[in-house]
Specification:
By secondary structure, the protein is mainly alpha-helical. It has one domain. Helices cover 47% and strands 7% of the residues. It has a two-stranded antiparallel sheet with strand order 1-2. Strand 1 and strand 2 form a beta hairpin. It is extended and about 55 Å long. It comes from Saguinus oedipus (Cotton-top tamarin).
């Protein structure tokens, strides 16, 4: 499901499968299903993931953007109350950003220049 959803939300990403097959991201779930069948595995799980991912994609990304469309899938308010923090909360301190590789690259450039 997650592979299908990612591939539909990133349609222009070019993919390469083992250096043999070049394709765009929307075909990734189908390529993985084909590879799974080549290995002799059942494709039922792959087909189920594609079906559930497609239903979620339609309900979350396509239907709400249509004329007169509404969001059918909404987060329950009890979960929002438990996990959502207010932006105005004075105790809400976001974690500091980590630099790639644990090294402050931009800070060294500022010191040199």
């Amino acid at each position: 499901m997650l592979v299908y959803l990612w591939s539909r939300r990133n349609p222009y990403v070019r993919m390469n499968f083992f250096g043999l097959l070049n394709f765009q991201a929307p075909f990734l779930p189908w390529v993985l299903m084909g590879f799974s069948s080549l290995l002799g595995n059942s494709i039922i799980v792959d087909l189920l993931g594609i079906a559930v991912g497609h239903i979620y994609f339609i309900l979350e990304d396509v239907f709400p953007n249509q004329h007169g469309g509404i969001r059918i899938l909404k987060t329950p308010s009890i979960l929002k109350a438990i996990f959502d923090t207010s932006d105005e909360d004075p105790n809400n301190n976001p974690l500091p950003e980590e630099w790639p590789g644990g090294f402050a690259w931009l800070e060294d450039q500022r010191l040199e220049g």
